[in-house]
Amino acid sequence: MLFLWTYIYLIVSSGIFIFCWNFNILSSANWNVVYRYWDSGGVIHTWKDYLLLLFLGAYLPCWYFGWRYFRNIQWLKVLMFPIVKYNQYIINKYGADSKRIVLKNMGVAGMKIEEEIELKVKPKMKIETDAEVNSIRAAVAEKINSVKHE
């Protein structure tokens, strides 16, 4: 990633310097012109000269901070961006005005139907009366007491 960022940065920054100041930062002949100008007592006169010095001074810090930013980009999202945008376009185009029915909670309804089938299949139990229940309880209590006394 470092080499790719450096290559892109050199190409873009060279283009900016050539377009604005006719100064190629990759050319040693241009740097010799600047050196001879300063060596012969050159003075900064215009705002373009100040901007050139500002851009030359910010050249390496911009490369460093650009590299840090470039390193932290999530490249999968960048590569998938056209596909995601196209899918959103298709959904908005064909799916926004559709009058479809959205069924919710299908699992709950399915369980109720199964319970109803089980209730229909199971044989109905005879409902016991209170007298029968009391007699069964008494018999169980007698059995427990007889076991305790032995």
Tally the helices: 7
What are the secondary-structure elements, in order, as H or E? HHHHHHH
How far is it from the N-terminal to the C-terminal residue, by CA? 90 Å
The share of residues in extended strands comes to under 5%
Total strands:
0
Structural class: mainly alpha
Mean pLDDT: 83
What's the gyration radius in Å?
Answer: 43 Å
Query: What low-confidence regions span 5 or more consecutive residues with pLDDT below 50?
Result: none
Helix content: over 70%
Instruction: Please outline the major beta sheet.
Output: none
Shape: elongated
Task: Describe the overall structure.
The protein is mainly α and 150 residues long. 75% of the residues lie in helices and 0% in strands. It has helices spanning 2-21, 28-39, 47-57, 59-71, 75-95, 106-121, 130-149. Helix 1 (2-21) runs antiparallel to helix 4. The longest helix is centred in the middle third of the chain and has 21 residues, at 75-95. The N and C termini lie far apart (90 Å). The mean pLDDT is 83.
